[in-house]
Structure formats: C-alpha cells, structure tokens
C-alpha cells in the first residue's frame, strides 16, 4: 500500500506549478516562523529538491539564520544522515542521488537538535508519514532525543485512512500545511 500511496502523491505533487509551490511554501514558512518552534535554537532543515516539487524550505532557513538560530542540513553518509552546520556561506555539492548537501563533513551532535523539519509526501491523522522509501529520515529521527520536535511540512492535509506503520517508522509530532499547523497525539 505504501508504494501505491507514494506513487499517487508524487504524481499529484508533480502537477503543481512553480507559482503554487512558492506561494504555498511561503504560507508554510509563515506558519512555522510564527509558532512556538522559534523559541528553540538548533534546527535540522532538509534542503528542498525542486525536481520533486517539494516545499521550498529556503524561506524558513533564511529567516532562522537572520534570527541568529543554528541551522543544520542533512548529508548522506552511507545509509545514515549527518547533520552539518549551514550558513549562507556553506558550499553545497550534488550527491550521487542529485541532492544538494554540504561539502564539509563537519557534524553537529544529534543531542543539540531541537526541531527537525521532515520531508514527506503524505501523513495520516496519527502522524504516520510516507517519505521517499529509503528510510533515511526514520533512521535519523530514531537517533534523536525525546525532546526533539519532528515537524512535517506538506502541501497536502493528512489523509483520513491509516497509513500502515512498520516497526522502524517514526511518528511526526506536527504537520504544517499552507492552511494550518496540526499536532499529533502520541
């Protein structure tokens, strides 16, 4: 089922125009930046892949940096994700998957991360999410402190049907869409 749902939402997202993506991404950024999350200091934020019509997280990153927050971004290391410091001067390179990531292997300790903005395709009303299927974020999220908040950002509202959950899947704490912020009960 996950494979079919993944395929369905990739296809739906592919239909969005750049104008829609930018407008909705700005709304998501506005909701995030006007929430309780900005009380925290260290944020792990994925770098968007325009070819997949993802939420453009650069709006969030730019404002967090302007506010003097610490931003870290993912870098693939085998099947793991490292959290590497990010500033406006960070040199980015394309990895073997075509994803931009820091050239440096400098890593921020996972226990320093307060909030993770998680990439996703869709979630259900319980906080189960479907990503791209590699398990990178589930492995990464499971390595973090209980205090860390997991925030999915998505153009779609949660689906009503339960998404099948496997033992290694990690639940989201929150979902932000262009319309609102939703808290999941764990």
Please, could you describe this protein's structure?
The protein has 186 residues and is an alpha/beta fold. It has one domain: 3-Layer(aba) Sandwich (Rossmann fold), CATH 3.40.50.10420. 24% of the residues lie in helices and 24% in strands. The strands form three sheets. The chain has a seven-stranded mixed β-sheet with strand order 3-2-1-6-9-10-11, sandwiched between helices. It is globular.
In short:
The protein has one domain (2-183): 3-Layer(aba) Sandwich (Rossmann fold), CATH 3.40.50.10420. Helix content is 24%, strand content 24%. The chain is built from 4 helices and 11 strands.
Key terms:
24% strand, alpha/beta, two-stranded antiparallel ribbon, 186 residues, seven-stranded mixed β-sheet, globular, ligase, ATP-binding, Rossmann fold, 4 helices
CATH topology: Rossmann fold
Helix content: 10-25%
Widest sheet: strand ordering: 3-2-1-6-9-10-11
> What is the radius of gyration?
15 Å
Residue fraction in strands:
15-25%
Question: What is the end-to-end distance?
Answer: 23 Å
Protein name: 5-formyltetrahydrofolate cyclo-ligase
Enzyme class: ligase
Family: Belongs to the 5-formyltetrahydrofolate cyclo-ligase family.
Cofactor: Mg(2+)
């Amino acid at each position: 089922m996950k494979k079919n749902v993944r395929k369905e939402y990739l296809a739906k997202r592919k239909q969005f125009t750049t104008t829609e993506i930018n407008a909705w991404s700005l709304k998501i950024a506005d909701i995030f930046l006007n929430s309780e999350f900005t009380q925290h200091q260290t944020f792990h934020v994925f770098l968007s892949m325009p070819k997949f019509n993802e939420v453009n997280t650069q709006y969030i990153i730019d404002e967090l940096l302007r506010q003097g927050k610490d931003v870290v971004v993912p870098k693939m290391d085998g099947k793991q994700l490292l959290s590497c410091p990010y500033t406006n001067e960070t040199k980015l390179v394309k990895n073997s998957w075509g994803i931009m990531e820091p050239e440096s292997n400098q890593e921020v300790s996972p226990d320093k991360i307060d909030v993770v903005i998680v990439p996703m395709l869709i979630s259900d009303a319980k906080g189960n999410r479907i990503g791209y299927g590699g398990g990178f974020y589930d492995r990464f999220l499971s390595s973090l402190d209980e205090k860390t908040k997991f925030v999915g950002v998505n153009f779609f509202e949660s689906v009503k049907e339960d998404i099948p959950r496997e033992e290694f899947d990690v639940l989201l704490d929150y979902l932000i869409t262009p319309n609102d912020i939703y808290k999941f009960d764990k």
